[in-house]
Protein 1
Amino acid sequence: MPRHLKSAEDFVTIGENIHTTRIVLLNGRRVRTLDDGTEGVPFKDENGNDLFLSIPDEFKEQQPYRQNQVKHFMIAVWKGLNGDAEEQAIGTAYIHREVRRQTNAGATFLDLNVDEVSPYLDIQKASMEWLVKTVEAVSTIPASIDSSNTEIIETGLATYTGAAGRPMINSVALERVEAIKLVTDNNAHVIVTAAGESGMPDDADERVENIDQIMVHIQDAGIPLSDVYVDCLAFPISVASTYGNDYLDAVAAVREKYGPEVHITGGVSNVSFGLPKRRLINDCFLHLAIENGLDSGIIDPIPASIQKVLDLDTGSEPVKLALDMLRGHDDYCMNYIQAFRDGRLD
């Protein structure tokens, strides 16, 4: 087939930002220090009021902070659950701001993940309940309940009222086939990943084999293909030069086998991890993936422009260098990295 997407408007964006894994740099442009020494992230609420998400002392004792990282959404959730009335209001306003930003940027779903809030399941479940309620209070688009633990997904689904639309479950794979029952019980959309029963796939063939196996269970459960979003799992191109083609070839094979009804998605920004000019790489990889049959992405909708991706100037030197790397023609990404050092990617 393989290109399926007809226009930028048809692209399904699963907004990835409301994750407790997300960081800003302590010495970066978003973090400020007040005159009294308080560190945090300034932001504006929906009425334009200046607010400040301060970093609690508890977070300053943790490894991410010592590594120059601020897990700002984790802080917002923590304040919502543990803070006084003022801190709860700040945490809530911070989440509401991100809901509005992603919605205004064209997100179709909002992916919600709290796995890193705590190692304790009861705290994770309480965090998911708070986050779903907080998001749903202002969101006009449905939630994607995301967790590596089925019980946390269950909590999110039980909390979600569905006022903004049917939920999405992120995700189902061979390692937890039992989660398919949550899809049917909740009339949900579902992300189906190419993960195997005991680990990640090695190549395109293994991705497709795993997808074929889990799709048997999906189809046996009567879930329509139009509710299914297949994630072929993108890995960093800096680790192995084959990883771009592994993903792209799997996307093409899935589109060819399952036809136009199924959606194909993925965290495409994973491919650029550890490399400079990540936006350039992400746009180029998304362009290639769409040409191979992708019609959805688990992405940050705020900097992304699907129309820009579709109109990519494939003749420009920066784009050609990124495309060559992603197609496996640049071992260890050395040509791309040298071009960055030479200032040829601007």
Note: The domain at 8-19+106-341 is CATH 3.20.20.20 (TIM Barrel).
Protein 2
Amino acid sequence: MNHPEQKSVAVINAHAPFSSPKGKDALDIALIFGSYEQDIALFFQGDGVYQLTDKQDPALIQQKDYLKTFSAFEFYDIEQVYVCGRSLKERQLPGQFHIDNVTVLEPAQFAKKLADFQVIFRF
């Protein structure tokens, strides 16, 4: 439940997981807000949907696997995870993810849900 002084926060992930530090930065922000029991949601669109795909091995490109940390969302009370259905279709990705409780939304629903948040961070 939100307290009057709390703001609802959305974090948009729009970049592939290991092409830049943006995905890790987005995760860190979400975990920080989650640890303070803020109303936090994660949104994935564009190449950001690749952060949710299963069976990635970042060790092959000498990267640390920050995606494993997504499994800690429940511990941080991060329960709202949304992915753009059009982004999945454009990349011919199935709706199977390495975490549970991901909601696939079509673009209009995605935009409407995003508009519900007071603060938006885009990575």
Note: The first strand starts at residue 9 and ends at 13.
Protein 3
Amino acid sequence: MNTENLNESYWTRRYEEGSMGWDLGYASPPLVAYSDQLINKDLAILIPGAGNAYEADYLFKAGFTNITICDLSAHPLRKYKEHPVIKTIHGDFFELQAHFDLIIEQTFFCALDPKFRPSYVDQCYDLLRSGGKVAGLLFKSHFEKPGPPFGGSADEYKILFGTKFHIKELSDAYNSITPRFGNELFVIFEKRV
């Protein structure tokens, strides 16, 4: 795949065709477990590349009051247009200018061409307030087929995130869904000050 074509049209077509192979149809169990232990329900939370945003739905039902989802395609954001709490941004994550306490990572990172990963780290750093965190799931192996999704390794992620973030957690996700079990890392990266 020519990764230059991973644009709004590409993602909109994938949503319209229902060909999002990583769409679970519900919030990912590791992210549910992480969300359940958060006490402050007023955290400003961003979910970039949110897609169908099952995690946002879960957070809302759990009482969180400041949820923003962002996607390059308007298609998955339509159902949230009139939502009382979940704010939508139809646009490019790399152009966002706001501040958040938490960025939830669920399949956005793996959808990006790896050449954009340093920019992803920089943008997360810029978007997070002091002490803010990136928490979520990353694949822990490389894939034979051309992406997306694109994989990686724990060592690569340590190097990539380690200059701007404290690595609070980078471990096998014990509660991944069966098809991904053993191939997902749960991560918490805290912004360095």
Note: Helices lie at 8-17, 29-36, 54-61, 108-111, 117-127, 154-162.
Protein 4
Amino acid sequence: MKILYIGDIVGRIGRQAVGRILPGLKKKHRADLVVANAENSAHGSGLNENIVKELNQAGVDIFSLGDHAFSKEKDVSACFTSQLPVIRPANYPPGVPGQGVYIQSVKGENIAFAVLAGRVFMDKDFDCPFRVGDMILANLAKQNISAIILEVHAEASSEKIALRHYFNGRVAAVLGTHTHVMTADSQLSAQGTAYITDIGMTGADEGVIGVDKENILKSFLTQIKYPHVIPEKGQAIFNAVLLNINLSAGRALSIKPIRETREIH
């Protein structure tokens, strides 16, 4: 089973990059399933039903969210109400709309996807990702699940690495998102857990983590906060990882980083 997992899609330019690059990649690598973090896809923050449909037409099957999941609450709540394949962090407090675990059936096999948000240097008080992860795995153990893919949406590399060790051998993959910068540490453990600290982003390549550089530089130079402007055109970067999963064992066989660029007009 091959799963393509795309890093944080930022704005229209990121969506355009997915539309231009994903169909060819999906065909080239014969990906069975495509997952994308889409919490920044609505002009840099949030997700809505129209964007889910747009990205689905480009080939994305499942959409994950992070700490910006509810930045446009009404829009994302409509996605949950429509029962679209959208996953928010599972360690939001009880009673929060949406789902933190999504089970997808492919070729008769059930693959579970879950998102956990980190707590170090994050601006929200999420529940403990370690303990919530334990509860998720205990619940999935009662079901017919062939493999579990865990996304860790977190700021601190140390927290992601700790979660990698904690869930090593218990899930097929632990994939970091949130920082928008792909790390060079993709690896496969002896226990069959694929890992990367951060997949990176899909968005404007010539700014600062997807945002136009001019206001970011002004903010650093003056310590005055200027609005984040998401470029509409220019060079876009597409970051993802390709997982190869042995479903009979619930283990990863490989993880391959993918980085491509396109000029968006």
Note: The first strand starts at residue 2 and ends at 6.
